[in-house]
Amino acid sequence: MKRGCWERAVRCGCYAAGFWVVSGAVAVVGFAVRQGAPHVTPKLLFGGVSAREALFGGAPVFDGLWPAVVGTFYLVAGAVALAAPLGLATGIYLAEFSRGRLKEVLTVFFDVLAGVPSVVVGLFGFSVSLLLHKMVSPRLGPCLLVAAFSLMILVLPYVIRATQSALEGVPQEVRITALSLGADPVQNLAWVLIPHSFRGIASGLLLAVGRCAEDTAVILLTGVVVTAGVPRSLLDPFEALPFYIYYVSTQYASPEELERGFGAALILLGVSVSLFAVAYAVRRAVGHWALYRA
Amino acid sequence: MTRRERLTRKILGAATLCAAALPLSILIFMVVLARPLFSSFSVTDLLTGTWEPLQGRYGILPMMTASLLLALASLAVAFPVSLGCAGLIFGLAPPVVTVPLRRLVQLMTGFPTVVYGFVGVFVLVPAVRDLFQAGSGRCLLSALVPLSLMITPTMTLFFSDAFAAVPRPILLAATASGADPVQRFVWVVIPSARRGLAAGMVLSFGRAVGDTLIALMLAGNAARMPSGFLESSRTLTAHVALVIAADFQSLEFASIFVCGMVLYVLTSCAALCAWRMRAAAERYSG
């Protein structure tokens, strides 16, 4: 009798834990949707300017989220453009060309890098910009380029890990088929192994995009500002969605600003969640279409 | 080895070298930029002193205490929750519950931290203020709830993986000797996955220590020794974000690099520990 009690208690505890997590998620999403949904309109993005003017006419937007959206987009594009080649190359090297002790040491290195807090990465980016300011040109300071570089450091371990484990997961029979038909290892890598692990790599890159879009601590230290307009060059300060949300929650000047903050939170949440959903779907989907390409 | 293969190898190796130089150069930058402070203060002064920049005292003990307190408390909340969720996902619940729960937990890993903080500011802070009459409501407790919620999904997924790695013969043996699912989970699965569980906890601790936005938005940021969970306090990460605006020549500015060093050392120790535990777990199961 006593034993049955005890087991029921464990089971109830597990369900309570599940309930706690679900209600936490519902609270976050529910609050963002309830407060943000009424404000997600073209006016939220473009303020008083018409969408066409802002998109094609180059009209500046002062009371909308458009510059922050564009800033975040540039930031993500820049960071991923930097992280993808380096991360892919490193992942391939770790999976295919390194053995034994060296591989172990390198893996630990990237584990450490993956654990470095984003504020420390931001601090590093900031000190790099100080260095550039002193050594290269006093006009340089925290800017879009430095922020993208720092975000690259933040997401590099994700790309490396995704590439490495996707390549290592290629089954042995696939690995040796092309070799036995006379392909050399480089051909095997380019035409068999990489296409075969395409899904894993793509899902890693999508997770990297999501991580870049949401991170606030790094850009907080590397050049984000409240009003900058749409960035005109890589060496300008910029606006970004996550920073705008942080800014609104600490010091909003008007109810309109608060409403824009709620809208921004909903947009960012939506973007991140859908990126993660797509990443998981890509990884899970069956059939290696990339294998039969070309 | 063909010429092309050698070339490919060289290019990839060079890229790997660049990538591997990054963690080292971060540490070197922190040390170099914190140096002005080390020439006038001893390391123990800095690590155990109080933060009174106007009196020329740049100790970071209050911030370290707040960081550790917050991280350990949120780990203490998140651990049983994650264990329960991972248990449900492992098979204590019917698939009708398991599959959506797993999806939800996966999606939750993508919730931006700044949104957790944002919701906390508008929902949790007023609630804490009214319930406990705690000043502005920005205190360790307000940061603790979203922080533990933030580390729960990754911890749950990590635990699920550790459970899934328990060898099947052990599970079958337990079932064959008459254990029901709950007994099997508590007495067989958890003990044999203990190394994986420990590694997951250590990694989550690193994440909790390293989080900036939740603490910055919700913990109140008063730079004094925390004496309870209803006190406004400042974590190391929030300290870095707050002091960055100071004068670049000042010692105050140099002191944030000491914070950066402490954070770096804490999280890399966590990563190393987790790696060793995982290596041990692999040897054990393989």
TrEMBL record, chain A:
The way it spans or sits in the membrane comes to:
Multi-pass membrane protein
> What SUPFAM superfamilies would the database entry show?
MetI-like
What keywords are annotated for this sequence in UniProt? Membrane, Transmembrane, Transmembrane helix, Transport
Per the record, its GO cellular-component terms are: plasma membrane
Is Transport among this UniProt entry's keywords? yes
Q: TM segments?
A: 12-33, 73-94, 106-133, 139-160, 262-282
* Residue ranges of domain ABC transmembrane type-1 in the record: 69-279
Statement: the UniProt record of this protein carries the keyword Transmembrane: yes
One GO term (biological process): transmembrane transport
- Entry's localization field: Cell membrane
Query: Which is an annotated Pfam family here?
Result: BPD_transp_1
Q: What is its main location?
A: membrane
> What is the protein name for this chain?
Phosphate ABC transporter membrane protein 2, PhoT family
From TrEMBL, chain B:
Q: What is this protein called?
A: Phosphate ABC transporter membrane protein 1, PhoT family
User: Sorted alphabetically, which InterPro entries does this protein's record hold?
Assistant: MetI-like, MetI-like_sf, Phosphate_Transport_Permease
Q: Which family does it belong to?
A: Belongs to the binding-protein-dependent transport system permease family. CysTW subfamily.
| One cellular-component annotation, GO | plasma membrane
Keywords, alphabetical: Cell membrane, Membrane, Phosphate transport, Transmembrane, Transmembrane helix, Transport
Q: Which part of the chain is the ABC transmembrane type-1 domain?
A: 64-274
Q: What is its main location?
A: membrane
**One Pfam family, short name please?**
BPD_transp_1
Report the membrane topology from the UniProt record: Multi-pass membrane protein
Chain segments annotated as transmembrane: 12-34, 68-92, 104-128, 140-159, 197-219, 253-275
Provide the protein's localization. Answer: Cell membrane
Q: Which Gene3D superfamilies match?
A: MetI-like
